[in-house]
Request: fold
Amino acid sequence: MYFDSLKKELKDKNYRMTPQRELVLKVFIDNENEHLGAEDVYRILFNNKHSVSKATVYRTIELLVEFGFLRKLDFGEGIYRYELAKKNHMHHHFICKICGKIYEIEEKHLDFLKENLENQGFIFEDFDFKIYGICPKCSRKMKKSIVSKK
Ligand SMILES: [Zn+2]
Ligand SMILES: [Zn+2]
Reply:
């Protein structure tokens, strides 16, 4: 479904859906909850026996960002990660500094901040919060190890 609408959108914008673009986009659709880097995309394609060069993967991803299909994310790791730029689905990210997992935080959790700022006259258009810390899984593990050391 989603894939078809993307294809149509590409066509409407006079962009061609080349097999490579389709493949790269499909990786993101199949891994919807992940935040993949270009290397991950390349590895997934490679493991599925698709021969797309690394340079093509990088170029295609950048193009898909330009088209507005992918959102580019920088978690300060020295690489960019990407996710589908789903319309009407804004969310923020929580990055666990222990396991490195990236969690999605729904927009509504930060509504109070938006409200607060809007009351001061700020107009919100787009926002992208990155919260760094320790995820519930890791914090539970930490607590356990502290208890067992006693
Ligand atoms: Zn964690
Ligand atoms: Zn995300």
Notes: Residues 92 and 105 are 5 Å apart (CA to CA). Strands lie at 36-37, 70-74, 80-84, 91-96, 102-106, 130-133.
